[in-house]
Each structure stands twice: as structure tokens, then as C-alpha cells.
Amino acid sequence: MSSPKPNQAAVLPTAKAKVVLQTRPIPTPGPDEILVRNHVIAANPVDWKIQDYDFFVDKYPNILGSDVCGLVVELGDQVSHFKKGDRVTGFAGVIYNSDIDYSA
Fold first, then answer.
1. Which of 36, 38, 72, 81 is packed most tightly, with the most Cβ within 10 A?
2. Where is the Alcohol dehydrogenase-like N-terminal domain (predicted)?
């Protein structure tokens, strides 16, 4: 159960720009992190407002989207409450100002 390659992402390259599809590297989870292969992501009103009004994002390029649903495909060595193959859903609101490759 590996992550699909390449990793495709809808990237907002600059403030108020059009979203472009880019191939991004698949990150390696840190010791207390999991890697989720997204099956579903949600585009909700905050995403287009970020794109149109340039708020919440401190650096570009950025990947919009914070609502995710998928399968755990990799685990950090300190993770004990998930296992590969677990179905998960979550909200990752902090991603807007983190490393672009750790986004939805």
C-alpha cells in the first residue's frame, strides 16, 4: 500500500493567482507524524477566499485545502496510535503556513 507517484497538488503560486497543477515530492513523515494518501479532499469557502483575498497565508507557493480523508501509508517511528491502512479523516488548518509539501 504505497503512495501514488507522482504526487499531484493544486498549488497557489502567488497571492491572488490562479491555481496550477504541479508535481510535488512526497514527504517522509517525522518521528511523530503520519503520511496519508488522500482519497478525498474538500474545497470549501475558506479556500477560494484565501485565493481571492490573500489572507491566512504568509508564504507562497502554497497548497490550498485542509480537509482530508484517506489511508495511512507511512508512520513515524514514535507513532503508536495509528497503523498502515487505517482510514482517517482530519482538518489540518496549520498547513497554510507550513512546508508546502506537507499540505493536502
1. 36
2. 30-89
